[in-house]
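sorry for the late reply, my laptop died twice this morning and i had to redo everyting from scratch. anyway the thing you sent over, i finally got around to it. pasting the sequence first so we're on the same page, its 118 residues, then the predicted structure underneath. double check i copied it right bc i was rushing
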Amino acid sequence: MHITTPLRANVFFRTAALLFTLLMASTASAYAIDLETARSKGLVGEVDSGYIAIPPGAGAEAQPLVGTVNQERRAAYADIATKNGVSLEVAGQRTFEKRFPGFPAGTWVQVQGKWSRK
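ok and here's the structure:
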């Protein structure tokens, strides 16, 4: 019995590892694109409000990413706003202004409602 128990445990762990790997691979494909890649491909752009959006001509491929990133940014801006005694909107706008110089050339940006490439 002692010989088969470790063998069964080994099979169990291998099976569990395989299932975990398959699960992670299928989940990763849903979020396969990250912000930097999406930005460089023109699938998302930066907005002067501090959030990201889908620029003109881009498909909806990055829409889940936009929702996730904007939710994270909204939480960060809320913290910044509270610490600095400003509104959420001002925190987002100031963050955009600080980050703008670091955006790579060709990044889509929307300033005062108009899209252009940096």
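DSSP finds four helices and four strands in the chain.
thats about all i looked at so far, will dig more tmrw
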